[in-house]
């Protein structure tokens, strides 16, 4: 009778099999962890995308509400805009709107006629007198914002701004800058020869250093594709702007005093604004333009530039919305520039990021 002899693996082979099993388990565990991480990342990415899209549409919704509010305000007041209206009177808390699902939207409205339009120096459609007037205004604003700025540097900045905006490649004076000046820099670029799109573009212009830009920033803005130069006396907040726009008929301090002397609901027209005691007193005095050191075109005098009231208005059509949306873990900030009339309103430009 034959006995069956039990077959057993050598100890070394059993150890190898155990190691192989452990390796397989470890490999499966690593793959499972990696798959779990990828799934988690995909879920987070999807949530971020959804929150980003939702925040974007909340931004557009806030823009639409503000657009309708402004159009109603313009229609009710026949275009007259002042600081006694709802769009301006809202406090910081009243500008914050709760959102469904959590979060909030904060909308701030700015009148783009309460600041100096950088595109006003685009002189392609202006007469010589008009362009010189605007250059003088820009120079006086720059010197009011930076009292210690060198006269030569102020001339360079103003002339370079005009060259940046005009369509040709020829400098209007030796103080300006054109394509060749920018192409010779360590990091070369070209002059736009067109309208400014955003205030930050000013940093590219010859002579505009960071301190100069920061000094000018509270006083300037950009109206897209327009060289209008109208300052709304009802909404302007800085005496420096009144001083510059009136070509020195008012000092900075007198400009501040004139603004403090306004009625709460503004003026119905510039003729009405002449009743402002500070303006009335200044209107009897000649303007005091600062031409700087740039050679003047033939026939240009202080008298040929016009009067102190020529660029003052009480109506506004261009506005900027600065909207901040916080939804979930997403924060979005965007600016919208609007044209608003009694019977029409258009979004001219949108941009994301800090203003």
UniProtKB/TrEMBL annotation:
| Keyword Transferase applies | no
Annotated GO biological process: protein secretion
> What keywords appear on the UniProt entry?
Cell inner membrane, Cell membrane, Membrane, Protein transport, Transmembrane, Transmembrane helix, Transport
Q: Name one Pfam family in it.
A: T2SSK_1st
What's in the GO CC field? plasma membrane
For whether the record's keyword set contains Hydrolase, the answer is no
**Where is this protein localized, as stated in its record?**
Cell inner membrane
Q: Which InterPro entries match?
A: GspK, GspK_central_sf, Pilin-like, T2SSK_SAM-like_1st
**Limits of the T2SS protein K first SAM-like domain:** 114-225
The entry's family comment says: Belongs to the GSP K family.
Put simply, this protein is called Type II secretion system protein K
The record lists the organism as Pseudidiomarina homiensis
């Amino acid at each position: 009778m034959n006995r069956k002899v039990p077959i057993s693996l050598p100890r070394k082979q059993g150890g190898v099999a155990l190691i192989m099993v452990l390796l397989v388990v470890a490999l499966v565990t690593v793959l499972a962890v990696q798959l779990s991480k990828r799934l988690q990342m995909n879920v987070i990415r999807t949530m971020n995308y959804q929150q980003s899209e939702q925040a974007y549409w909340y931004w557009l919704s806030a823009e639409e509400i503000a657009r309708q509010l402004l159009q109603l305000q313009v229609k009710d007041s026949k275009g007259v805009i002042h600081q006694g209206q709802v769009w301006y009177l809202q406090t910081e808390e009243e500008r914050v709107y709760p959102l469904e699902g959590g979060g909030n939207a904060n909308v701030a409205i700015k009148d783009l006629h309460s600041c100096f339009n950088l595109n006003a120096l685009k002189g392609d459609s202006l007469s010589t007198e008009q362009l010189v007037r605007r250059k003088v205004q820009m120079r006086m604003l720059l010197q009011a914002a930076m009292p210690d700025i060198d006269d030569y540097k102020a001339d360079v900045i103003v002339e370079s701004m005009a060259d940046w905006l005009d369509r040709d490649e020829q400098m209007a004076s030796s103080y300006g800058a054109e394509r060749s000046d920018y192409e010779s820099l360590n990091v070369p670029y070209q002059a736009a020869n067109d309208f400014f799109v955003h205030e930050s573009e000013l940093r590219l212009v010859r002579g505009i250093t960071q301190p100069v830009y920061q000094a000018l920033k509270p006083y300037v803005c950009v109206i897209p594709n327009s060289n209008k130069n109208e300052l709304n006396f009802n909404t302007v907040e800085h005496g420096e702007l009144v001083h510059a726009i009136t070509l020195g008929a008012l000092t900075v301090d007198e400009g501040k005093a004139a603004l403090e002397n306004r009625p709460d609901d503004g003026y119905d027209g510039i003729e009405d604004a002449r009743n402002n005691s500070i303006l009335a007193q200044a209107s009897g005095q000649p303007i005091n333009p600062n031409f700087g050191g740039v050679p003047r075109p033939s026939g240009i005098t202080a008298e040929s530039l016009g009067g102190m009231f020529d660029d003052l208005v009480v109506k506004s059509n261009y506005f900027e919305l600065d909207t901040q949306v916080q939804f979930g873990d997403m924060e979005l900030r965007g600016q919208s520039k609007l044209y608003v009339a009694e019977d029409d309103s258009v979004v001219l430009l949108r941009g994301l990021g800090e203003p």
